[in-house]
Amino acid sequence: MASYADARHNSGAWLVRIEDVDVPRARPRAADAILHALERYGFEWDGPVWRQSSRSDAYEAALARLAARGLAYPCACTRRTLAAQRTSRIGEHVYPGTCRNGMSEPPPATAGAAKPAAIRVRVPSSPIGFTDRVYGAQCQRLDEDVGDFVVRRSDGLFAYQLAVVVDDAAQRITDVVRGADLLASTPRQIFLQHALGLATPRYLHVPVAVDARGAKLSKQSGASPLPASPLPALLAAWRFLGQCAPPDSARNVPEFWSWAIARWDCARIPATVNRLAPTATV
């Protein structure tokens, strides 16, 4: 709702991208169900639907550019090894740079063949800052909070961080509006944008809807599916985003959107999660 209302209020296009880069986890027909739900709830997108599962060549080209600049290197470290590393203030296990200067040992063999290595990028020690349209000034030291991070997994699949940066640039995205659970990922994406010579869009993060236990609403946490009747759910989402009280006259989905788009105000969105604590002044 926030991304759609923000785009339409500012006479912008609203694009739909199916971020199914993690192919093994993608469920058959899930994307179709998502698109049908958007249509039922009155979300009208512009242009064709992009699918990350068909964009591997673009991600490979971006990885080659990073490698040509000496920013990408292979890593044989396992998840078990990384789980033993310290946890940063943003809840990440910080990669200690074990393979930065060459792998100490090759990846373990699988069925007689060496397992491919993951690919990481070298992060800077300088702070990366940006201003979020809801949470204000943000600053992060990637070397302290994340470490060199993976851009291609050992199974050959590209990481979300690289894929989303490449696609945002290819689609000429000017504004990214998404959940605050991705606020801490933004400096990684800005670093990749700078490394690849790509423009940085504006960012707006909205509070994440959680259940009584504090878990993000999702199928994994047992959240209820969207109801068949869209209007009550749209009104609830509108209130959750702190917007002005809707009128009783909104009797259907088209009437709601006509009213809501004209009155959207991102300044009313509540900042209900802690922002990144600055580690340096920028």
Describe the structure.
The chain has 282 residues and is of the alpha/beta class. The model is unreliable at 273-282 (pLDDT under 50). The strands form 5 sheets. Strands 3-6-9 form a 3-stranded antiparallel β-sheet. The chain is elongated and about 65 Å long. The longest helix is centred in the first third of the chain and has 13 residues, at 56-68. It has helices at residues 2-9, 30-40, 56-68, 79-83, 142-145, 160-170, 186-196, 230-240, 253-263, and strands at 17-18, 50-51, 72-75, 109-110, 113-114, 118-121, 128-132, 136-140, 149-152, 175-179, 202-206. The two termini are 32 Å apart. A hairpin with a 3-residue loop joins strand 7 (128-132) and strand 8. The chain has a single domain (2-268), classed as Rossmann fold. Helix 1 (2-9) crosses helix 9 (253-263) and helix 6 (160-170) packs across helix 7 (186-196).
Distance between the termini: 32 Å
List low-pLDDT spans: 273-282
Largest beta sheet, briefly?
3 strands, antiparallel
Question: Helix/strand-derived class?
Answer: alpha/beta
Number of separate strands: 11
Mean pLDDT over all positions = 89
In terms of quaternary structure, what is this? single chain
**CATH C-level label:** Alpha Beta
Arrangement of strands in the largest sheet:
3-6-9
Written as H for each helix and E for each strand, in order along the chain, the element string is HEHEHEHEEEEEHEHEHEHH
Q: What Rg, in angstroms, do the CA atoms define?
A: 21 Å
Tell me roughly what share of residues is in helical segments.
25-40%
- Examine the coordinates and then state which fold CATH places here, giving the name of the CATH topology: Rossmann fold
